[in-house]
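Quick one: structure for this chain?
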Amino acid sequence: MKVHIPTPLRSYTGGVADVDASGATLADLLADLDRQFPGMRFRMVDEQGALRTHMKIFVNKESVRDLQTEIAATDLVVLMQALSGG
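Got it. Here's what it folds into:
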């Protein structure tokens, strides 16, 4: 499935905005992304296995936070990372 990578995480993908990954759940998908792009999962998931508060994941335009959410090969997954500053 296609996964859209936010700009702050594109350093892991060599600057590529859209990558292919697979998995039956969001957790599986993030594990596959980490296999392909080592270190990426840690930027999205904390030490307790929960999605970091600044991360947003959309599956077919629906916001999801549960990493056990089932996904299909035809789904579009968009990762978003909130930025702050002043």
